Amino acid sequence: MNRTPAYLQPGDTIGILCTARYVTAEQLQPAIKIFEDWGLKVKLGSTVNAEWHIFGGDDVLRACDLTDFFNDPEIKAIVCARGGYGTIRMIDKVDFSGFINNPKWLVGFSDVTALHTHINSMYEIPTLHASMPVIIDNKTPEAIDSLKKALFGDELNYSYKNTSTFGRSGEVEAEIVGGNLSLIHTVQNTVSELFMYDKILFIEEVGEWLYNIDRMMWNLKRSSKLQNLKGLIVGGFSELQDNEIPFGLSYEEIIWEKVKDFDFPVCFGFPAGHIADNRAIKMGVNAVLRVGESISFSQKI
């Protein structure tokens, strides 16, 4: 059975809500204008303008808002307003039955990785790793255009020159999964744990300490998550931190150390993550990855 959500058409309604940190309706205006320019209608969730500590309302409100959007037949796609922290706190309170019976695109990245991994592992329904409304006006035109293409069902094609010292050439077609490294690590040994066997893994990170990236990558290697991958795509690793006594390895060296003895294609510098050029990736969907002097990535409808 095809579990891919229906792609959007002009006139469709998308819903914007908070699963993590709070956001105001005013902060969403640039994104709302972009969506309306695409011919879409926008419905805001009850978590927009809600505030409980750092969150967009308490855990129950955020879970109920997502459940309501899953059950709302008018809403054809759900866009998480922002990341931060908080999705893991409410995920077990969400009723996914409406989503299972009527899949719709769920959009977000960063903290929303908890939903990507959960939905992929539990329900095998594709989701969309892409820019979120609160910062969409700071993204490149290519990033915004990729979100539109992904939502409306156009083929995704990205290519860039391979400038990294590290990586491994090759070509592979397989399902792609992943997201933020910290969240992938967080959901290990839970019902939301990501299954990586025979898949392309995508990882990105922001604001993390180099030693902690090393620790999380060792966790993935020692739990045999890496050895059976079909490919590894490393996106943006931005605003990284180091101790007064330097860790001594770059993030590329840290990651390469864990996968250099395997034989699958590996690329660095992919345009996705906490960077301006955050291209959309359909998680749970096959992708073709080619790594050589240049790197290309494509996903069909």
Automatic annotation (TrEMBL):
<dbReference type="GO" id="GO:0008236">
    <property type="term" value="F:serine-type peptidase activity"/>
</dbReference>
<keyword id="KW-0645">Protease</keyword>
<keyword id="KW-0720">Serine protease</keyword>
<dbReference type="InterPro" id="IPR027478">
    <property type="entry name" value="LdcA_N"/>
</dbReference>
<dbReference type="GO" id="GO:0004180">
    <property type="term" value="F:carboxypeptidase activity"/>
</dbReference>
<dbReference type="Pfam" id="PF17676">
    <property type="entry name" value="Peptidase_S66C"/>
</dbReference>
<feature type="domain" description="LD-carboxypeptidase N-terminal">
    <location>
        <begin position="14"/>
        <end position="130"/>
    </location>
</feature>
<keyword id="KW-0378">Hydrolase</keyword>
<dbReference type="InterPro" id="IPR029062">
    <property type="entry name" value="Class_I_gatase-like"/>
</dbReference>
<dbReference type="InterPro" id="IPR040921">
    <property type="entry name" value="Peptidase_S66C"/>
</dbReference>
<feature type="active site" description="Nucleophile">
    <location>
        <position position="110"/>
    </location>
</feature>
<protein>
    <submittedName>
        <fullName>LD-carboxypeptidase</fullName>
    </submittedName>
</protein>
<dbReference type="Pfam" id="PF02016">
    <property type="entry name" value="Peptidase_S66"/>
</dbReference>
<dbReference type="InterPro" id="IPR003507">
    <property type="entry name" value="S66_fam"/>
</dbReference>
<feature type="active site" description="Charge relay system">
    <location>
        <position position="274"/>
    </location>
</feature>
<keyword id="KW-0121">Carboxypeptidase</keyword>
<dbReference type="GO" id="GO:0006508">
    <property type="term" value="P:proteolysis"/>
</dbReference>
<feature type="active site" description="Charge relay system">
    <location>
        <position position="204"/>
    </location>
</feature>
<comment type="similarity">
    <text>Belongs to the peptidase S66 family.</text>
</comment>
<dbReference type="InterPro" id="IPR027461">
    <property type="entry name" value="Carboxypeptidase_A_C_sf"/>
</dbReference>
<feature type="domain" description="LD-carboxypeptidase C-terminal">
    <location>
        <begin position="174"/>
        <end position="288"/>
    </location>
</feature>
<dbReference type="InterPro" id="IPR040449">
    <property type="entry name" value="Peptidase_S66_N"/>
</dbReference>
